Amino acid sequence: MKKFSVGYIALSKASWVTPDIDRIRQRTLERLKELPFELLHGNALTTTTAETSAICRELSRQEASAVIVHFATFPVGAIIPVIARELNVPTLLFSTPEQPAAGGIWAQNSFCGANMAVHTLRKMGRKCGFVFGTASEADALLKRPLNVLKCMADLAATKIGLVGGRVPGFYTSNCDEMRLRSSVGAEVEIIDQLEIVDTAGKLTEAEVRKGAEEVRKSSASCCQTVEKDILPAGRMYEALKKTAAKYNLTSYAIRCWPEWSDVFGIAPCASMGMLNNTGFVASCEGDVLGAVLMKAQAALSGGVPFFADLISFDYAKNTAVFWHCGAAPAALCRKFEDTKLRQHFRVDGGDKKGLVNEFPLKPGPITMAQLDEDGDGYRMLIAKGTALDTEPFVRGNPLDIRFDCSVEKLVATIMNDGFKHHYSLVHADIEAELRELCKWLDITPVLIQ
């Protein structure tokens, strides 16, 4: 995946440049260097269209992923179209507050410059973000919008292995591949289930043993009945990893039933949870957009997402239970001693074949979201809440959540507006980041107030 790098261009009118103005550029640059991104920049204020064109060419040569345009002062107006034309990357405008200088001079007029620029960019059909604050706050203020832009870059480089297609009748897992490629940039690689089986069969004994050891380490305990499933699960885990490397995948969407347990002998749930545990996203039931959303949540939060169904709710308590059958990553367990490898409670009538990792999930702040096709575009349902300490009252992976919004209104929105039955949750408050991502990608955000 290409490294995310950020260009920095500090603008001023030549006649407005003073040592104080250049010190603003220098302080801003010092703070931006504290961010976890490669920073590409010149060594002086940019004051003319010729200088602008030169620095844009250099940033293009170095393959900048995004650019910060800093209005150290009000700039030459013709500079903005040059940046828009010559740098085809997301742009963040940064301006700083000021007080009158000696003699009542308004020395920077920084915000006004950004205001002029945003209008110019809109006229040229270019989106941009805007951040306002002091030079000493530049790193703190720009970190979140830059994280969103890095998430966009990650999604554009995402390659999802769709193994076996979607499961029968789950039209909710359908995905228009070309719409996804053109709108988000993510690519779908179609992979037959039998290729995973074939790859698994060609593994060395050492690879299989390594996988089996990883399976055992993924859970605190193991039912005696699933001992026979540990080796096949390790074989499956290693085969999925090897196939991902073969196709340069960053994610999976897996048709996990009905054939999988017949062709492989066990269900893939525990192995998928293990992949998610390592940061390699894997969604259930062939849901490609679910994998895209999980990838976004992971990038924005640094956490591990949970792919789930909404199975119950309590209007009086303003809570809802999200759950899935045993594919949750162990990193999300309430406590590791709760984790237990078991046979799947549904496959072949239940408790006949493994392998699932059952446990309730941990408490903490939660952002629930869902990405769905809508007309010619996309929409994203977003709701925040607090995950509660949840007892293992049902087989699989349950999580009880008290939402900030009205659960009654949330359920009504889901049912009245025809949202899908798959959701992704992450233990972090990333509502603002998801809203910003929606803005950049022309996704309609649906927030429950």
How would you characterize the overall build of this protein?
- This protein is of the alpha/beta class.
- It folds into two domains: 5-156, Rossmann fold, CATH 3.40.50.10940; 159-447, L-fucose Isomerase, Chain A, domain 2, CATH 3.40.275.
- It has helices spanning 19-32, 49-61, 79-86, 110-123, 138-156, 177-183, 193-201, 205-217, 227-247, 260-264, 269-277, 288-301, 407-416, 431-441, and strands at residues 5-11, 38-41, 66-71, 91-95, 128-132, 159-163, 187-191, 221-222, 251-254, 281-284, 306-314, 319-324, 340-343, 354-358, 364-374, 377-387, 397-403, 423-426, 443-447.
- A six-stranded antiparallel beta barrel has the order 11-12-17-16-15-18. It has a five-stranded parallel sheet with strand order 2-1-3-4-5, with helices on both faces.
- Strand 11 and strand 12 form a beta hairpin.
- The model has no long low-confidence stretch (mean pLDDT 97).
Key structural traits:
449 residues; alpha/beta; Rossmann fold; L-fucose Isomerase, Chain A, domain 2; six-stranded antiparallel beta barrel; 37% helix; elongated
Question: How many strands in all?
Answer: 19
* CATH class designation of the largest domain: Alpha Beta
CATH architecture of the largest domain: 3-Layer(aba) Sandwich
Return the structural class: alpha/beta
What share of residues are in beta strands? 15-25%
Number of contiguous helices? 14
Q: What is the share of helical residues? A: 25-40%
Mean pLDDT: 97
Give the strand order of the largest sheet, numbering strands 1, 2, ... along the chain: 11-12-17-16-15-18
Q: Kindly, what is the distance between the CA atoms of the first and last residues, rounded to a whole number of angstroms?
A: 37 Å
Q: Low-confidence segments, ≥5 residues, pLDDT <50?
A: none
Main sheet specs: 6 strands, antiparallel, barrel
